[in-house]
Amino acid sequence: MSPLALFIAILGLALLGWLSARARAMAFAAPGAPRLHSLPGYHGWYVAIWAALPALLFLLLWVPLSDRLVMDAVLGSPAAANLPPFEMQRNAILNETRELAEGLRQSSFHPEARELAPVYGSALSRYRLIGTVAALLLAFAGGAFAYSRIGPAFRARTRVERLVMLALLLASLIAILTTLGIVLSLLFESLRFFSMVSPVEFLFGSTWSPQTAIRADQAGSSGAFGAIPLFWGTVFIGAIIAMIVAIPLGLMSAIYLTQYARPVVRRWMKPLLEMLAGVPTVVYGYFAALTVAPAVRDFGQSLGIPASSESALAAGLVMGIMIIPFVSSMADDSLTAVPQSMRDGSLAMGATTSETIRKVLVPAALPGIVGGVLLAVSRAIGETMIVVMAAGLSANLTANPFASVTTVTTQIVQLLTGDQEFDSPKTLAAFALGLVLFIVTLLLNIVALRVVKKYREAYD
């Protein structure tokens, strides 16, 4: 039985266990019988878990182990003596053997694969039979054990809820351990980089040229790893140009939707505005490269300013449009959370709607708005595709929005593209850049969450 069919069979046994255990528990709940400690549904879930969980854990371990055992059986057969010594060619023949044995292909390019296919098929059938019998026995034994414990006084709810709590704990630990692994991997590789390049040069140098020299006497053979142009490009595009676009448009759209729009208009416009957050960034990149960047270049040339076909302004404008929903959504929630009594009091004193918004609502909602802006900034400085497609790869330290610049994320992509050696400063520089970007975005998120938390406490 294939792993998928076996998985479905185990779930079917678990379903039968749930139905039978629930029916038995309901029989115990007949009039005049002792009161059940747990509802019949909990008894059903207890049996279903015991029927499914041990068998699924066994299946999870058996599938990779059986693949290894099948391959060992194939390589230990006399027909495997004709395999070539070259590893890549051997793997190609073994993959072809597997496809022939499983019926995924009818013809073979290598004669060795045709000889090994019956051996592979026989071993695969044998180990699949062993796994199927063992998994079904585990499912039956677990379900029978749990079914035998059902009774009026059995605390099925307690057992099931403990298992659910354990599953939730494991899920939270996976998230924490994943984050810890990311941090440690970045930190370890960054320390290797800083053992080759001075942290002072990296953090405060103004020349970025991490090329690898072919000859020792080549100009710039040691490379230049001053990351200031990258940091400036990231701030220039993501935190200045994009925010100049996103903050006014996002805030004004939130004010209109909360204060001026009719309910039917808000019901349609708010989802349409938030759909911008669901558009893939590569689509924004195409729009920036094919539409906005040529328009920006033509506009700059019409003003007599030398403008590049890839510019910071083009990338920043499109990035600002992309993060409008982040600013608008947080501002909308902040304005809505302001107590109605503050609006009513301002209007009762004779203030107009515009004056109420400018002098009461926006100042009261400012902490939440600032938190939304900080979250949007952290989202913008981590953007890659728009910058790659519209801003270019030149590490220029310039304030000219019509010039080509690059960002930290773009250089990380550039440094890790293709086959790289992970013992050179050029490749390890990507991890150092990633560590700096991680720390900056983490600090921005911490500040934003503290601001939002303080704001929420003020009106709870």
Strand order of the largest sheet: 1-2
Coarse shape: flat
Major β-sheet annotation: 2 strands, antiparallel
CATH architecture of the largest domain: Orthogonal Bundle
The run of helices and strands is: HHHHHHEEHHHHHHHHHH
Residues in helices, as a percent range: over 70%
Number of helices: 16
Q: End-to-end distance, in Å? A: 58 Å
Report the CATH superfamily of the largest domain.
MetI-like
Low-confidence stretches: none
Quick one: CATH class of the largest domain?
Mainly Alpha
What is Rg? Answer: 32 Å
**What is the CATH third-level topology name of the largest domain?**
MetI-like fold
Counting helices, strands and paired strands, the structural category is: mainly alpha
Number of strands: 2
Number of domains: 2
Structural description of this entry:
The structure is a single chain. This protein has 460 residues and is mostly helical. It has two domains: 3-154, no CATH class; 209-458, MetI-like fold, CATH 1.10.3720. The protein contains 16 helices and two strands. The chain has helices spanning 3-28, 40-75, 87-101, 111-148, 156-196, 199-204, 228-260, 263-274, 281-302, 312-322, 324-337, 340-348, 353-381, 385-390, 408-416, 425-458; strands at residues 208-209, 224-225. A two-stranded antiparallel sheet has the order 1-2. Helix 1 (3-28) runs parallel beside helix 4, helix 7 (228-260) crosses helix 11 and helix 15 (408-416) packs antiparallel against helix 16 (425-458). The two termini are 58 Å apart. The model has no long low-confidence stretch (mean pLDDT 83).
